[in-house]
Amino acid sequence: MKRTGDSLLLILGILVLWQVLYWLAGDIALTSPTGTAEHLWKLLGTARFWGHAAETARAFAFAVAISLVGGVALGVLLGLNRTSGVVSEPILIALYSLPKVTLYPLVLLCFGLGMSAKVAFGAMHGLIPVTIFTMKAIMQIKPVFWRTAHVMRLTPRQMAFTIALPAVLPEVIVGARLGFSLTLLGVLIGEMFASQRGLGFMIMSAMGLGDMATIMAVAVFLSVFAIAANALLMWLDRAIPR
Amino acid sequence: MTEPAGNDVHVRLTGVTRAFELSSGAKLHALGPIDLDIRRGEFFGVVGPSGCGKSTLLDILAGLSSPTQGTVLFEGKPINGVPDGVGVVFQEDASFSWLSVHDNVAFGLRRNGVDAAEVSRRVDYAIGFMGLRDFANAYPAQLSGGMRQRVCIARTLVLQPRLILLDEPFGALDQQTRLLMGEELLRLWRETGATVMLITHALDEAAMLSDRVGVMSARPGKFIDFINTEWPRERDSRIVSDPRFGAITSRLWDKLRVESLKSMGTASPGASA
Ligand SMILES: Nc1ncnc2c1ncn2[C@@H]1O[C@H](COP(=O)(O)OP(=O)(O)OP(=O)(O)O)[C@@H](O)[C@H]1O
Ligand SMILES: [Mg+2]
């Protein structure tokens, strides 16, 4: 309960700061919180907005599925073998810290404009953190758990589903939370540069028109979505005993 | 079921050794050669200096690792992988942090496809037996180290193994609880007729619980003495006041003191539990 209170306080603080900034900077740079809410409300009533939102949602769903499923699978494979885990960790971290925008021309070359490029760009951002978290979690499973599993004569399948999976789940959820936000970011950046559709494109074209109200409204919409999703994953995380 | 220690051999080790390949390429001779018969239904205690190879011996008996040389027979058959009917309580805490005490204890039974009513009957009994009734729904993180170890013991016992291997299971317990847990173990041993091998660093525990205590040398561990305690099968911690108890304990210490000194002198930094 206390955490919910803290979060509310934080949101309130941001709103106040926003209002103050608006007073200071004026209409050209920023729209006011109430103005943005009004504009968002109007946008929510248009088919155009929902068309773009659906497009982003579709790309994000694909990208997040690739990030999570692929990241967990890759992490398990690399983590199960100690050597491969130790070798690949610095490589993954190097890849992860690479500014991915520099790879963008390459992605466009491979996938062209449109859906697949957006998905690829989203997955590029989300896959690696999920892989790293999963791999580290697998490597840190206590050896005595494996020994116990052997003594109980579990099949490899039983070991995977009744020992490995629950043992790494808390870590994997942390990785998923990170992967989730980064994938969203990746998809939006993809839409900004290589698409005629989606919320990222909407922001980009609003920028071209100097339509501050739309930019802010879409940003607020995305933030609310990201915060809600994160809260859901955090709740899931806390529901797991450890 | 409650047949006393018979004379038929339950476990037989012949010329068993174990060497580890170190990352430096050198070979570490950790154990043996060991020739040992454990009789069916016997309570066999093992004491030895730290790092002498007790856990290594247990791994070999459990089928978790193969001897470098020699043969191991369990119920007359060579061990190849973990045999059916062997239960192990490890030296480290092996309770599953993501399961409640009840589900931890039920874990093996459920994997074996035992039906739900039978699972809950056996689990309730084992949880009561181990004094964990008030904690059935707690998670390991909420328990003390000693209680977690009891969860592991219960988890092994419900599977009704014919050979129970315990690696310093009471190491994390205080002296009083230790004695009482020892009595529980004795009761269990009597009731099930299982063969027990108990590794311990507490000489009094070995002397009180065992039919026979094997004393191991410093690494590479070999058995340098066997002491038959000749306790009656019906026994409890009160035998500590028996004059023979003192005699057994001091004979154990005599043997062990020399070996412990040796092992402390040669202890390598790599030696671990
Ligand atoms: N996997 C391994 N690789 C290399 N050396 C090992 C390995 N396992 C055990 N050893 C070494 O073998 C020796 C015996 O180890 P073991 O764990 O069997 O001793 P122990 O008698 O159980 O000791 P403790 O009383 O401290 O538990 C030690 O020197 C240890 O360092
Ligand atoms: Mg040991």
Which helices and strands occur, and which strands form pairs?
The complex is a heterodimer of chains A (242) and B (273).
Chain A: H1 2-25, H2 33-44, H3 47-80, H4 82-97, H5 104-111, H6 115-139, H7 143-151, H8 156-194, H9 199-209, H10 212-239
Chain B: E1 9-21, E2 27-39, E3 43-47, H1 54-61, E4 69-74, E5 77-78, E6 86-89, H2 101-111, H3 116-129, H4 145-157, E7 163-167, H5 175-192, E8 195-199, H6 203-209, E9 212-216, E10 223-228, H7 243-266
Parallel strand pairs in B: 3-8, 3-9, 6-7, 7-8
Antiparallel strand pairs in B: 1-2, 1-4, 4-5, 9-10
Helix pairs in contact in B: 2-3, 2-4, 3-4, 6-7
Bound molecules: adenosine-5'-triphosphate and magnesium ion (MG).
Adenosine-5'-triphosphate binds next to strand 2 and helix 1 of chain B.
Q: How would you characterize the overall build of this protein?
A:
The complex is a heterodimer of chains A (242) and B (273). Chain A is mainly α and 242 residues long. Chain A is built from ten helices and no strands. Chain A has a single domain, classed as MetI-like fold. Helices cover 85% and strands 0% of the residues of chain A. Chain A is globular and about 70 Å long. Chain B has 273 residues and is an alpha/beta fold. Chain B has a domain at 9-85 and 161-264: P-loop containing nucleotide triphosphate hydrolases (Rossmann fold), CATH 3.40.50. Chain B has seven helices and ten strands. In chain B, the strands form two sheets. In chain B, strands 6-7-8-3-9-10 form a six-stranded mixed sheet, with helices on both faces. A four-stranded antiparallel sheet of chain B has the order 2-1-4-5, covered by helices on one side. The interface between A and B is medium-sized, with 19 and 22 residues. The complex binds adenosine-5'-triphosphate and magnesium ion. Magnesium ion binds next to helix 1 of chain B. Magnesium ion (MG) binds next to helix 1 of chain B.
